[in-house]
Design goal:
5 strands; 5-stranded antiparallel beta sheet; single chain; alpha+beta; globular
Length: about 100
């Protein structure tokens, strides 16, 4: 599943002409492109989908949504460790060395 998840901007930098930010999604920090929201500032919240900040969001709504997603286990599903999740369902994933040989 691929969710649009609210996150809080921790810092912003320009990289190769593109505004990028580190965004906190309830304890998971990911790199996000801010090109669709060029005036988004540190400390603000945005809805993020596939690595792009798409819409500004107020803090209360963001926190409520993150809490609901966490309760439903959706944050773990979206951001969790794929090897850990595979182990829970009994799948075997290739090691990094095996993956490189493919």
């Amino acid at each position: 599943m691929c969710l649009a998840v609210p996150g809080r901007v921790l810092d912003i930098e320009e990289r190769d002409g593109t505004r990028m930010a580190n965004v906190d999604f309830g304890g998971v920090v990911k790199e996000v492109c801010l090109e669709y929201l060029p005036d988004l500032q540190v400390g603000e919240y945005a809805i993020v989908h596939v690595g792009f900040a798409l819409q500004r969001l107020d803090e209360e709504s963001a926190k409520q949504t993150l809490e609901l997603f966490a309760t439903l286990g959706l944050l773990q599903e979206e951001f969790g460790d794929p090897w850990e999740m595979a182990a829970e369902v009994g799948e075997t994933l290739p090691s990094a060395g095996e993956e490189a040989r493919r």
